[in-house]
Amino acid sequence: MGQGDIDEIADRTGFSGVVWIDRAGQIEFAKAYGQANRTYGVPNTLDTRFGIASGSKGFTALAVLSLVQEGVLELSTTARSLLGNDLPLIADDVTVEHLLTHTSGIGDYLDEEADTEITDYVVGAAHELTTTEAFLPLLDGHPTKFRAGERFSYCNGGFVVLALLAERAGGVGYHDLVRERVLRPARMTRTDFLRSDELPADAAVGYLPLDGSDRSNVFHLPVLANGDGGIHTTAADLSTFWRALFAGDIVDGVDEVVRPRCDVPEQSRRYGLGFWLHASTDTAMLVGYDAGASFQSTHDPQTGTTRTVLSNTSPGAWPIARALMS
Question: Rounded to whole angstroms, how far apart are CA atoms 250 and 70?
Answer without folding.
Answer: 12
